[in-house]
Specification:
The chain is built from 2 helices and 8 strands; from the N terminus they run E-E-E-E-E-H-E-H-E-E. The longest helix is centred in the middle third of the chain and has 19 residues. The chain is of the alpha+beta class. It has one domain: 60s Ribosomal Protein L30, Chain: A. Pfam families: Ribonuc_L-PSP. Its EC number is 3.5.-.-.
């Protein structure tokens, strides 16, 4: 089996720190996208949970698209929220994006190492 690493050179995190992991890894028809936060150019975009959720999901979609995967290939989404009160708002954004192709999902509340409200990762399959 061939393993393809997308963005293996790493990205840029907050404060310009080098991120030592691939943005995604593909193997055997599966694509695993690393957790994405609402960041652009290494900086968290300010805003409420709606705006931050949209950007975190869009960052996943951008990586999926680069790797040749579409929304219909998403099998599972993991979500970390920093406050349980964000759950309903996140669900609204999630439904807007995945309405036609709802994947399985886990949503949890935890502290994040980046000062933002949400982190999202996706798993895709294309047989």
């Amino acid at each position: 089996m061939t393993i393809r690493r997308i963005g293996a050179e790493g990205g840029t995190g907050t404060g310009g720190q080098h991120l030592p992991f691939s943005r995604a890894v593909e193997a055997g028809g599966w694509l695993k996208v690393s957790g994405q936060t609402p960041m652009r150019d290494g900086e968290v975009v300010e805003g409420g949970i709606i705006e931050q959720s949209r950007l975190a999901i869009q960052n996943c979609i951008d990586i999926m698209t680069e790797a040749g995967y579409g929304l219909e290939t998403v099998t599972h989404v993991s979500v970390v929220l920093t406050d349980s009160r964000y759950f309903q708002s996140f669900n609204k954004v999630f439904a807007e994006v995945f309405g036609e192709h709802p994947p399985a999902r886990i949503c949890m509340v935890a502290d994040l190492v980046v000062d933002c409200k949400v982190e999202v990762d996706v798993t895709c399959y294309k047989g």
